[in-house]
Amino acid sequence: MEDWDYYICDLDGETAGVFLNLALAGQAPDVERRVSLRIATPLIDPDENGLTDGQSDDAARLEDDLEETLRARLDAVYIGRITHSGLREFYFYASGSQGVLEAAREVQQRHPQYKLEAGSAADPKWEQYLQVMYPTPEVLRSMRNQKVLAALMDHGDDLTKPRPVDHVMYFGSTEARHEFRRKAAELGFAVRRELNAEDEEDREQPFGLILWRQQPVDPASIDAATSQLERLAAEVHGTYDGWECPVAK
């Protein structure tokens, strides 16, 4: 299962770009792969922030070769890469580190323009993935929003135009849902409809709610709205489940 995405963050005071398979969070840590592998190479042409504009064909071929070679030699799982300070670091998890140096040398022979260095560390809790590379809840929410906005823009949407925006939440009890409704109403959200337990019987939180509000969906506006609702839902142990809206031109 794969769900690759990219975000910019601060890493020890330096601007960093993280490209990560978010889908692995559902199975981390993998008890069969308790060793973190790192293969790093200097960027050939970094920008002033120590990053790079896009992914060149050579860089993409290097990344693909590393993934295929380490999977074949060490049964390693590729989790993603960090780019910062003129350096690109590729990270994997495997059951052990034996053979990683040989694999790096093999790949470098096929890509002589890159100078690779390899290392490993015991990481049974997958801290490199879960604590270093995985985005914070706020960043993750914004990343999800950006995917919806990209789909809207593909259809010619003017994100600054107000339109009805529906938001979906789930709760463990009708009391929690009622309390959330009261707080959300103070922020201008109205009820579209409730989702009753018999309709959502497979959920741990079977009491759903669809709210709506007239608003634009530019990044700042939609990030603010989803942040408010996610925070309010968490206060009553509920879960914010996403949003949708019509295209506005």
Low-confidence runs (pLDDT<50, min 5 residues)? none
**Spatial strand arrangement across the major sheet:** 1-2-4-5-3-6
Number of DSSP-assigned strands: 10
Give the distance, in angstroms, between the N- and C-terminal Cα atoms: 35 Å
- The total count of helices amounts to 6
CATH homologous group name of the largest domain: Ribosomal protein S10
Radius of gyration based on Cα positions = 22 Å
Estimated share of beta-strand residues: 25-35%
Give the CATH level 1 class of the largest domain: Alpha Beta
Shape: elongated
Secondary structural class: alpha+beta
The count of domains is: 2
Task: Write a brief caption for the model.
This protein is α+β, with helices and mostly antiparallel strands and 249 residues long.
Give a written overview of the molecule.
The protein has two domains: 4-133, Ribosomal protein S10 (Alpha-Beta Plaits, 2-Layer Sandwich); 158-244, RraB-like (Alpha-Beta Plaits), CATH 3.30.70.970. The chain starts with a strand and ends in a 5-residue tail after the last strand. It is 33% helix and 31% strand. It is elongated, with a radius of gyration of 22 Å. The strands form two sheets. A six-stranded antiparallel beta sheet has the order 1-2-4-5-3-6, with helices on both faces. A four-stranded antiparallel beta sheet has the order 8-9-7-10, with helices on one face. With 249 residues, the chain is α+β, with helices and mostly antiparallel strands. It has helices at residues 57-74, 100-110, 127-133, 137-154, 174-185, 219-235, and strands at residues 4-11, 14-21, 35-42, 77-84, 87-94, 117-122, 163-171, 190-195, 207-215, 239-244. The protein is built from six helices and ten strands, in the order E-E-E-H-E-E-H-E-H-H-E-H-E-E-H-E.
